[in-house]
Amino acid sequence: MTEEEYADFAARLAPYGISQSEFIRRAVQGASIRPVVTVSSVNDELLAALGKLTAEYGR
User: Fold this and answer.
1) Closest CA to 1 of 24, 34, 17, 18
2) In angstroms, what CA-CA distances link 46 with 39, 40, 49, 52?
3) What Å distances lie between residue 5 and 27, 50, 53, CA to CA?
4) Which of 12, 15, 22, 56 is a good FRET partner for 40, with 20 to 30 A between their CA atoms?
5) Which DSSP category does 1 fall into?
6) What is the dihedral of CA 21, 27, 31, 34, to 10 degrees?
7) DSSP letter at 2?
8) pLDDT in tens, 23-53
9) The three-state (H, E, C) secondary structure of 14-51, written as one string
10) Mean pLDDT for the stretch of residues 4-23
11) 1, 6, 3, 32: which is closest to 19 by C-alpha?
12) Burial level of 23, CB count in 10 A (0-12/13-18/19+)?
């Protein structure tokens, strides 16, 4: 956060008399955290084929 963004943020919090941490606590309270699962279609056969190609064209 830039100094200008922080100053704007702090100015918005001032009327409520709460700190940045308290604002964040209240904002995330009850928020669900969803993990991101990335699936890759790489398997041993594909890796072996890539290894052969690399060996062949790397000469």
Assistant:
1) 24
2) 15, 12, 5, 10
3) 18, 48, 51
4) 56
5) -
6) -60
7) -
8) 888 888 877 767 787 877 778 888 888 888 8
9) HHHCCCHHHHHHHHHCCCCCCCCCCCCCCCHHHHHHHH
10) 90
11) 6
12) middle
Tokens 């890759």 — which residue?
A: 40
Compute the distance between CA of residue 48 and CA of residue 2 in angstroms, rounded to an integer: 48
Place of tokens 């928020």: 31
Sketch the domain layout of the chain as residue ranges.
1-32
Q: How many residues does the chain have?
A: 59
Contact 23, 13 (CB under 8 A): yes
